[in-house]
């Protein structure tokens, strides 16, 4: 039985682990598959020759990416990928938080009294929310679609469904307001809801990814403290 280690990009929940393990187990000659959520490291046990391209395709079929490196450099590659993920998340988080704040400032009943006129404009709110929805929420949609293809649901499915309902309703309200003209209550768009949810979840993902990175480094240092030799004293 042979073991093959590699890294899977994009893991962030237990459902991600499950779909990847199930996809890997379907590859010919793969007997067991283990995916570590904390480190992103995956291990498959095989009893024959396995084409690594099949492994990459299996992981890609559920919306993730498999990264292979030599055994000595895999940990370095994982560290590099996690740093890139943090950098990418930081950019999305920064832009999403700023735009969500502006939308909230211009639409929340108490705050909007102190906001500039253009922040209260529904067209501005639509454009800002569209950037958050597409740029900030793209990874949620990709993961949700992959899960639905396998008849599964995960946290990304919930986020994509909830934010899209709010965003699409608000878009219809802005561009087809005549559909709501007979309503007794005064209605308004809810771009602030969809944008704020995406921004806060991105904040959680960023803090989680940063904590995982620090934890991995701490574990490596702890393992490095293990003695390489031991002395056994036997009393006669």
The main sheet orders its strands as 2-3-1-4
Label the overall shape. elongated
User: What series of H and E elements makes up the topology?
Assistant: EHEEHEHHHHH
Approximately how much beta-strand content do the residues carry?
Answer: 5-15%
The overall average pLDDT, rounded, is 83
Number of H/I helices: 7
Structural class estimated from helices and strands: alpha+beta
End-to-end C-alpha gap: 41 Å
- In this structure, how is the largest beta sheet organized? 4 strands, antiparallel
Q: Which percent range fits the helix content?
A: 55-70%
Description:
Helices cover 58% and strands 10% of the residues. The chain has 236 residues and is an alpha+beta fold. It has 2 domains: 2-68, Alpha-Beta Plaits (2-Layer Sandwich); 77-221. Strands 2-3-1-4 form a 4-stranded antiparallel sheet, sandwiched between helices. Helix 3 (74-107) runs antiparallel to helix 4 (122-136). The chain starts with a strand and ends in a 12-residue tail after the last helix. The mean pLDDT is 83.
